[in-house]
Every structure is written in structure tokens, then in C-alpha cells.
Amino acid sequence: MKHIIEIQKAGTVKDLDDRRDLCFVSDGLEVESIKNYIGKTDEIDEFAAFFVKVVDGGYTEIYGIYSIIPHLENDIYRINFYLK
């Protein structure tokens, strides 16, 4: 099986402003844990923070940003990953 990671631009932080189901993660250890969960690649390693949705202990949505500070105009990237 092959680990597939897809990263797509999904708007800006402002687009997630009303999403109360997402948690912002910027703590270094937690960010590293999410990167390991996704599968570390050069692209994933560039993200400084994430917005995540957690259901039953697993991530059901992950959005990455390149800044540790979530300014409303920062681009966000939807990260999908699966085995094929």
C-alpha cells in the first residue's frame, strides 16, 4: 500500500472563522505529532500550525497554515491523506 497525501488551497483563515468544530494547534509538540500522524514530507514539514477537527480520537479534517499566528488573511491548505 502507498501513503497518499493531497494538499489543496482552501481559502483563508477568515473562511474558518465560524467553524467552532475546529481546534487551532500551534504548540510545537502537538504540531509535530500531527505531522507524524499525517506522514512527514517536505511539504507537510513546512506548515507551522494546523486547524483540526477531532472525532472519536481521530482527525477528520486538517488544515495547515505557514504561520504560527492565524491572521485572517493567511492562506489555509486542506490536507487529505489515505492509503491506496
What keyword list fits this structure?
alpha+beta, 84 residues, 18% helix, Nuclear Transport Factor 2, Chain: A
Can you offer a commentary on this structure?
The protein is of the alpha+beta class. It has one domain (3-83): Nuclear Transport Factor 2, Chain: A (Roll), CATH 3.10.450. The protein is built from 2 helices and 5 strands, in the order ββααβββ. The protein has a 5-stranded antiparallel β-sheet with strand order 1-5-4-3-2. It is globular and about 35 Å long. The mean pLDDT is 93.
Write the layout of secondary structure elements.
Layout: E1 3-12, E2 23-25, H1 28-38, H2 42-45, E3 49-55, E4 58-65, E5 75-83
Antiparallel strand pairs: 1-5, 2-3, 3-4, 4-5
Which CATH class is shown?
Alpha Beta
Note poorly predicted spans.
Answer: none
Give a short account of the largest sheet: 5 strands, antiparallel
| Overall residue-averaged pLDDT value | 93
- Secondary-structure element sequence? EEHHEEE
Question: So what's the oligomer here?
Answer: single chain
How do the strands line up in the largest sheet? 1-5-4-3-2
Précis, in short:
A hairpin with a 2-residue loop joins β3 and β4.
